[in-house]
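#lab-general

N.A. 3:47 PM
ok so I finally got the sequence cleaned up, no stray characters, all 193 residues accounted for. can someone with queue access submit it? mine expired

B.Y. 3:52 PM
send it over

N.A. 3:53 PM
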Amino acid sequence: MLLSNLTHKKIILASKSPRRQELLKGLDLDFEIRTMDIDEDFPASLMAEQIPMYLCKLKADAFLPELKAGEILITADTVVWVNGHVLNKPLDRAEAESMLAELSGTSHVVYTAVAITTIERQVVFFDETEVDFVALEKNEIDYYLDHYKPYDKAGAYGVQELIGYVGISRLHGSYFNVMGLPIQLLYKNLKTF
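B.Y. 4:20 PM
back already:
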């Protein structure tokens, strides 16, 4: 194991996201999944990276009462920031279509924040990636929504899916951050646990 400091620790990923699970597997770590439903409301005064930082800490704090010695909890939250406001997960097809139409032909920033929590301490950090979209045609948006149903994704898209292949012209920053977990930063921070 590359992260030998974690040999006798239990890693817990508190996420239902298959993308986050896939990315954490890429570090060759054994981990278990624990989830709970948490109200993801946040104060309206929060902006940009403050939103996922608040939410990943909120998620972690919900697990604190059941966390045990030797356990390391990883929580994360991703948002899309465009035109001075946040795009979270769309509630339905109409909202997803509206989000993709807004992202079409523009740049936006994806922020993913991560909290690493033990009973002794908590570290919260974030990464940001600027994403440029080409102008999408309505039939491209419709096809994507019909076939991929991206209702569990911030901004209504997955970089690793068809819309990323045809719609993203440039990324400045971490690709994996856009997928939902800034894995290089997570690895760097896990070295100290």
